Structures are given as C-alpha cells and as structure tokens.
Amino acid sequence: MEEPEMQLKGKKVTDKFTESIYVLANEPSVALYRLQEHVRRSLPELAQHKADMQRWEEQSQGAIYTVEYACSAVKNLVDSSVYFRSVEGLLKQAISIRDHMNAATQGHSPEEPPPPSST
Asked: Which residues form the signal peptide (predicted)?
C-alpha cells in the first residue's frame, strides 16, 4: 500500500511544483520583463514608421500648398479675363490705326511729304 500512497504524495508534489512554476512564470515582474523586451524589439521599427509618417506629412503639406497656389493662380487668371479682353480690344484698335496710317502714307504722292510725326 505504500506505493499508491507514494504515488499520491508524488502527484501532490508535482502538482504543487507545477503550480509554483506557473505562478513564477506569470509573476508581474516577469510580465514586466517580457513587456520591456517586446518594447525594446518593437521601438526602433515604430520610431522609423513615425519618422516616415512625419516625412510624408511634410511632403503632403508641400503638395497641398502647391495645389492651392496653382488653384489661386488659375482663379486669378479667370478673374483677369476682363482685362485680357480689354487689352485685346486695344490691340485690335491699335492695329486698325496702324493699318489706316499705312494706307494714308501709301496714298500720298511722292512729291508730297508725309504728314509730320507726333514724336
């Protein structure tokens, strides 16, 4: 009968030992150590991701500024179409006056001096 009793005592000892190992393995200080190891492994990669994201944000902000500036320039061009039409009219008028002056100069006989210039 001693053998079953020994087996029972051996089982109790191994159960207690297993429970003690389980408690030690899951002790808060061990958990903190594992957390520290995880952070130590993960932190460089996370820092690199953060730096990449900041660089991309700066590039995006630059692109947004460029697009906004281009949109503003296009809007200003559209708004200035009135002035372009006015300049176009003035240029047509100047060409017409030049053509009339050339025609008037061509119409004079060679003996007649050309009209005095207003310069």
From this structure: none
**Pair of tokens at residue 40:** 């130590």
- In whole angstroms, give the CA distance from residue 117 to residue 113: 11
Give the sign of the dihedral formed by CA 67, CA 71, CA 73, CA 74: positive
Contact 51, 59 (CB under 8 A): no
Percentage of the chain beyond pLDDT 90 is 50
> Mean pLDDT, to the nearest integer, of 32-41?
88
| Contact status, residue 43 vs residue 49, Cβ threshold 8 Å | no
Concatenating the DSSP letter of every residue in 1-21 gives -HHHHHHHHHHHHHHHHHHHH
On whether the CB atoms of residues 114 and 108 are closer than 8 A, the answer is yes
Residue 32, H or E segment: helix 28-79
